[in-house]
Amino acid sequence: MKVLTVGIIAIAILAVLFAGCTSQPQTPPTTATAQPVVPTTTAQPALPQELAGNWQLTSMGVQEGTAITYPTTAITLVFGSDGTVSGNGGCNNYNGPYTLTGAVTDKGSGITIGPLTSTKMYCQTTSEQENTYLNMLQDTMAYDVDSATKLVLTGKSQNVLIFQRPSAIPKQTEGMLPA
Fold it and tell me: For residues 153 and 160, is the Cβ–Cβ distance under 8 A?
């Protein structure tokens, strides 16, 4: 009888093990249908050829253009076709986005610049000038290009930044006397 009981228990254990090993038909996992991603950015007008490229600051008109200052060091501005501006503020390199707004004002075509980021070197003699320049640049609301060599950026507060193409800036030759 003992052998019969052990046999029945063994059969029961085997039945349980085989029952757990039976396979169920597998259903393939359901996948969501991917929807195409549509960018929601507004297309910016193409960068006008007259604005593209390198510019060098020749003067800043603060207090609505009534107080003119001249940079004591080279300050540059470059408009890229990728919607960014970059340059050197006299000490630090800077960059950031710009947007051509399409607006037309009495000061020129609409543009916004910034927010700008820059390196953080301290240059005692040019720090204040650079901060003024970068603040004015980020305040820009309009631009006007005159004869493809002069660029005027006007801010919301009516301050102006005046640039020229580096090739159009006269070079002073050492030892020359003014005419």
Answer: yes
Q: Residue 103: what are its φ and ψ, rounded to 5°?
A: -75, 150
Which of 66, 55, 51 has its CA nearest to residue 158?
66
Residues 6 or more apart from 164 whose CB is under 8 A from it?
Answer: 55, 56, 58, 149, 150, 151
Which CATH architecture describes the domain 53-167?
A: Beta Barrel (2.40)
**pTM score, two decimals?**
0.68
Tokens 């005027």, located at residue: 152
Model pLDDT for residues 114-155, shown as the tens digit of each residue? 999 999 898 888 889 999 999 999 999 999 998 878 999 999
Contact 79, 46 (CB under 8 A): no
Q: Copy the structure tokens of residue 81.
A: 């076709």
